[in-house]
């Protein structure tokens, strides 16, 4: 870096928008580069950011722009107040990155590679997300949110392994207990290794993980492209692989799979004969409310194992053995509340929200 650029960096707090054109901006140990409110620091024309400062906190707005590849690296992770990627930029993470106020994607990629990008609880994620404006998350790195309570979270992730494909994830938490909670996601542009479907399946799977969340219920939705469909979409069911067995979700439709879950793992789509039994729980069980009762009725030929009932706080409030009868009543003694009922057989689970009057 020449002496002129060093002077520019030292004086950048005086300038509303500063463009640096050297190969790297290096932050040495105990040093900082801060832009005052209303100002921005622009790293353009392939400029990289290298952080060797243990604090690693960069205030103000940092903008990566231009079509030449850029990266963020160094001895320590970086925490940005505001981070923007624009003008077709590709920023690769060679270290973990956090954003505490706003991450803005304007026609640009952030490639996680094998590192994590985490939005702190106060941060927003902004952009018109598409195959030209997304987080590339096909390595071991994950896009994560710090979360403090129920709410909706969009993961605008995709891959560039063959062609650029945008395959976002949407999560809606309806209940749960959150303590230093983080929810994260990434994906692979390939058939799940445990999916033995031979004719109809998705050539993509997503991995969702969490820490610090207990007793939760979450609506999940995964979107895929036409190129991910092998065979006929009408024969594909969403499914969750927990490391030991498959649990079927809703039937695939209009390039998405969805369901309601109380734990996370890998998600994809496959043939019902593989990802579920030949008969789905939801097709053979009726769950209704009658006064203070939750009534569970199953067809005589369909054998269930147990039912678990969770309240709005995500707490398990009742467990019932369903193996002895095809008609079961659960008396919760509550007045007008919403519960999540999880029904289990030997190789499936199914969840449904129930209003008890």
Question: Which features does this protein show?
Answer:
357 residues; mainly beta; Immunoglobulin-like; 2 domains; 21-stranded mixed beta sheet
What does this structure look like?
The protein is mainly beta. The chain folds into two domains: 273 residues, no CATH class; 76 residues, Immunoglobulin-like. The protein is 4% helix and 55% strand. It contains three helices and 30 strands. The chain has a 21-stranded mixed sheet that branches. The protein has a four-stranded antiparallel sheet with strand order 27-26-29-30, with no helix packed on it. The chain starts with a helix and ends with a strand. The N terminus is likely disordered.
Short description:
The protein is mainly β and about 350 residues long. The chain contains three helices and 30 strands.
């Amino acid at each position: 870096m020449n002496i002129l650029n060093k002077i520019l960096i030292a004086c950048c707090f005086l300038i509303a928008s500063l463009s640096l054109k050297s190969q790297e901006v290096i932050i040495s140990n105990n040093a900082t580069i801060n832009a005052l409110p209303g100002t921005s620091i622009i790293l353009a024309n392939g400029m990289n950011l290298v952080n060797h400062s243990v604090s690693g906190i960069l205030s103000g707005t940092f903008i990566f722009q231009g079509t030449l590849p850029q990266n963020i690296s160094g001895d320590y992770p970086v925490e940005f107040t505001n981070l923007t990627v624009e003008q077709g930029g590709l920023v690769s993470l060679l270290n973990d990155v956090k954003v505490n106020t706003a991450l803005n994607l304007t026609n640009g990629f952030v490639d996680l590679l094998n590192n994590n990008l985490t939005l702190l609880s106060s941060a927003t994620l902004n952009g018109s997300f598409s195959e030209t404006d997304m987080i590339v998350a096909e390595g071991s790195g994950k896009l994560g949110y710090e979360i403090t309570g129920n709410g909706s979270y969009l993961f605008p992730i995709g891959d560039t392994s063959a062609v650029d494909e945008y395959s976002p994830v949407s999560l809606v938490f309806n209940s749960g207990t959150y303590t230093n909670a983080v929810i994260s996601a990434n994906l692979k542009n390939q058939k799940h290794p445990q999916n033995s479907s031979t004719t109809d399946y998705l050539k993509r799977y997503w991995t969702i993980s969490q820490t610090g969340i207990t007793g939760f219920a979450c609506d999940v939705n995964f979107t895929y492209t036409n190129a991910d469909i092998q065979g006929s979409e009408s024969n594909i069911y969403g499914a969750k692989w927990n490391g030991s067995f498959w649990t079927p979700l809703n039937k695939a439709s209009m390039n998405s799979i969805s369901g309601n879950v109380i734990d996370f793992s890998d998600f994809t789509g496959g043939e019902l004969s593989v990802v579920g039994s030949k008969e789905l729980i939801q097709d053979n069980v009726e769950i209704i409310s009658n006064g203070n009762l939750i009534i569970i009725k199953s067809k005589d030929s369909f054998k269930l194992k147990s039912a678990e009932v969770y309240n709005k706080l995500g707490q398990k409030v009742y467990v019932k053995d369903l193996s002895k009868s095809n008609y079961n009543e659960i008396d919760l003694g509550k007045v007008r509340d919403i519960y999540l009922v999880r029904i289990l057989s030997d190789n499936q689970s199914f969840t449904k929200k129930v209003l008890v009057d």
